[in-house]
Amino acid sequence: MRALWFAIVGCLAFLTALDIGAASANAATIVALGASNTYGKGVARNQAYPAQLEVILRAKGLNVRIVNAGINGDTTEGMLQRLDRAVPNGTRAVILQPGGNDRRKGSPDRTADIQSRLSARGIKVIMLANGMLGGLPHQPDGVHLTPEGYHMLAEQLASQVSGSIGR
User: Fold this and answer.
1) Residue 25 predicted with pLDDT over 80
2) N or C: which end of the chain has fewer CB within 10 A?
3) In b/e form, how buried is each residue of 8-24, taking b as 16+ CB within 10 angstroms?
4) CA-wise closest residue to 54 among 86, 13, 18, 95
5) pLDDT for 133-157, tens place per residue?
6) For every residue of the chain, which 3-state class applies, written as one string?
7) Can you give the pTM of this predicted structure?
8) pLDDT for residue 130
9) Cα angle at 114 between 108 and 118, to 5 degrees?
10) Please, which contacts does 85-89 make with residues 24 or more away whose CB atoms are closer than 8 Å?
11) Looking at residue 75, what is its pLDDT?
12) Residue boundaries of the structural domains of the chain
């Protein structure tokens, strides 16, 4: 009897793993492209807004995969240069957070070029303007969000992202 129970549990675990694998394979890919507030500077990877956004959308029944393509200190020039590597074919939408590094580093703002290239590939762009970070809880540096701030940002973005992928 015990062997039968283990066999049943094993089969259920296998079927669950197959279902999860199929769901992941069919998931709509969304790329979060940006600088340190996309990367999640100062917090654990699972506390950055892209990871929290994926959890929120999955809890709402959406089969999504959010890829965090944020790099601390990146400029829009850097984002443009790595765009094809960071945003694979089949990506449904990009959350673009240009950040403030262009101004700080004296680099040209290439946001329009990024948007144009993504649009030409049929990828929807959701702009995460720096103004969306105002009023949210920040770390002591006053620039980067706390885990709670990233969660609040993810909540704000959830309906926009789900709408952009038609769900």
Assistant:
1) no
2) N
3) eeeeeeeeeeeeeeeee
4) 95
5) 999 999 999 999 999 999 999 999 9
6) CHHHHHHHHHHHHHHHHHHHHHHHHCCEEEEEEECHHHHCCCCCHHHCHHHHHHHHHHHCCCCEEEEEEECCCCCHHHHHHCHHHHCCCCCCEEEEECCCHHHHHCCCCCHHHHHHHHHHCCCEEEECCHHHHCCCCECCCCCCECHHHHHHHHHHHHHHHHHHCCC
7) 0.84
8) 83
9) 175
10) 86/31, 86/33, 87/31, 87/33, 87/118, 87/121, 87/123, 88/29, 88/31, 89/121
11) 97
12) 28-165
Residue given tokens 């885990």 in the structure block: 147
**pLDDT confidence band for 24 (50 / 70 / 90):** low
Token pair for residue 96? 């673009």
Give residue 99's identity as a one-letter amino acid code.
G
Instruction: Identify the architecture of domain 28-165 in CATH.
Output: 3-Layer(aba) Sandwich (3.40)
Rounded Cα gap, residues 28 and 123, in angstroms: 12
Which residues, other chains included, contact 138 with Cβ-Cβ below 8 Å and sequence gap of 6+? 144, 145, 146, 149
Q: Which two tokens stand for residue 1?
A: 């009897």
Grade residue 99 by pLDDT with cuts at 50, 70 and 90: confident
